[in-house]
Specification:
- By secondary structure, the chain is mainly α.
């Protein structure tokens, strides 16, 4: 039986679910894009407020399905802010996508709800519920430009391949249930020790589950959908897909691995290490070959997921588990704002478009001359993703470096250094192009005041986390 304390502990989930219902009713009664946008932003503000207001102490289990703790509320707050930024940038971008745009805001709220459920998940049932709620909303969002064939193609590819990944993951969970007799993360750990099916079946099941979640993270070799879907999606949807939709599965994977103790299974750690190295190298090498910025950032995100997987390998050792957890959280707090900002610039450069964004590297030529504010944001984003000092990305990679050194994972450390060195080239290539003198026919881009305010805020946040990160670090340390 859920009591008032339990409801308070999962207040962000309650706020988003209730808000989505209210928005659905509002759309049924009155179609108004501005009203729908303000309603969605208000719901996100309420959900963010509950993340700050809720005090979960050392953690509270709300039924066997949800675990309310500092990690869950911190990421829930990050997701609410990230979605709000995407919605603010959608004001001028959205009208050209579809004749009826109100459902866009509803789908974004539902996708955020799915992501928040994922970070609270403590059971296979809640994991699947959150993951499918997130994924189904994204299928529709990717295909939202109803008159653009490339968007329908991207959504179809994402739907079909995601269905296969979900089936693989479900089969893995079915085997785990047969082996352990439980679907609760912590109970799986106890069941794996006494499995009647033997260690080979348990290890196979764990790898199947890892494969399904690795698809959601677009880790190599499960990455083939990523560049096509990123390119075909509206820029604001791609911003959400590359940030919130990556961070949420990673958090639930981290919680699953730690609580179910998959690290004890033979060969699992080696598979995880191989995924990390392959993602870092494949992502960076293929990004070198791209002329389309969306595709370049897609391959870059594959590499960044490889970087993040380092902490899962380090977390296998209980002595370094706290450091690994801190590194993972800080890394995503550096990665998510930069990724949202990078795709947000593309949205602001294509106001009122038809969902086919002008996103070639050459299209940014002279951006520093035409739109210095947007160019500055893209500069800060690219420097942060490259891991240049005085940005949040530098400290995020330094955290990963420290975790890899502490665990003695020299192969992963070498791949991290090599991948980062390769990444600097293709990030600097875009910066060089933006600094070129524009042609006389180039004109400034009209963008709304709210969009520009968000741009300045993101520049401030990325630099602040790189220069004065102590407050966030201390808060993260208190969680672990």
């Amino acid at each position: 039986m859920i009591n008032s304390a339990d409801l308070a502990a999962i207040a962000p989930i309650v706020a988003l679910a209730a808000g989505a219902t209210v928005l659905m009713l509002q759309i049924a009664l009155r179609r108004d894009l501005s009203l729908s946008r303000y309603t969605a932003l208000f719901v996100l503000a309420i959900a963010l407020g509950t993340c700050v207001w809720v005090d979960v102490g050392d953690g509270r289990e709300v039924t066997p399905l949800l675990q309310a703790d500092g990690l869950a509320t911190l990421f829930a707050a990050l997701f609410c802010v990230s979605t709000a930024v995407c919605l603010l940038w959608s004001r001028d971008y959205l009208p050209g996508l579809s004749d009826q745009g109100d459902e866009y805001y509803l789908l974004m709220l539902l996708a955020t709800l799915g992501a928040v459920v994922l970070v609270y998940a403590n059971h296979v049932a809640s994991l699947l519920l959150g993951l499918e709620l997130l994924s189904v909303a994204l299928y529709a969002l990717v295909a939202y430009p109803s008159r653009v064939p490339i968007a329908a193609e991207a959504a179809t590819k994402y739907l079909v391949l995601s269905g296969g990944a979900s089936a693989t993951m479900l089969f893995g969970f079915a085997l785990l249930y047969a082996a352990t007799g439980s679907l609760e993360f912590s109970s799986m750990a106890r069941g794996l020790q006494d499995s009647v099916l033997g260690p080979a079946v348990s290890a196979t099941a764990a790898v199947l589950v890892l494969s399904g979640l690795a698809f959601k993270l677009s880790a190599a070799p499960f990455h083939l959908w990523t560049p096509d879907v990123y390119e075909g999606s509206p820029a604001t949807v791609t911003a959400f897909l590359a940030s919130v939709a990556k961070a949420a599965p990673f958090v639930v994977l981290l919680r699953l691995l730690l609580e179910a103790e998959f690290f004890e299974l033979a060969g699992f750690l080696e598979v995880l290490s191989a995924l990390a190295v392959l993602s870092m190298l494949v992502g960076n090498l293929l990004a070198l070959m791209q002329q389309n910025i969306k595709r370049m950032l897609a391959y870059s995100s594959i590499a960044h997921m490889g970087y993040a997987l380092i902490v899962l390998v380090v977390a296998a050792d209980p002595l370094h588990r706290a450091l690994a957890g801190e590194a993972a959280v800080f890394y995503f707090f550096a990665y998510v704002p930069a990724t949202v900002a990078g795709f947000g610039v593309l949205a602001l450069l294509n106001p009122g478009g038809e969902g086919v964004d002008t996103a070639e590297v050459d299209d940014l030529s002279g951006l520093f001359w035409r739109e210095p504010l947007l160019a500055t944001l893209m500069l800060v984003v690219l420097l942060s993703l490259a891991g240049i000092p005085l940005t949040a990305g530098f400290l995020g990679k330094f955290y990963l470096f420290a975790a890899a050194v502490a665990g003695g994972h020299w192969l992963l450390l070498g791949a991290l250094v090599l991948g980062s060195a390769i990444g600097i080239y293709y990030y600097l290539r875009v910066i060089f192009q933006m600094s070129q003198k524009p042609a006389e026919t180039d004109s400034a881009i009209a963008s709304n005041f709210a969009g520009r305010l968000v741009v300045m805020s993101l520049i401030f946040v990325i630099l602040l986390l790189g220069i004065l990160p102590q407050a966030l670090m201390e808060h993260i340390q208190s969680i672990f």
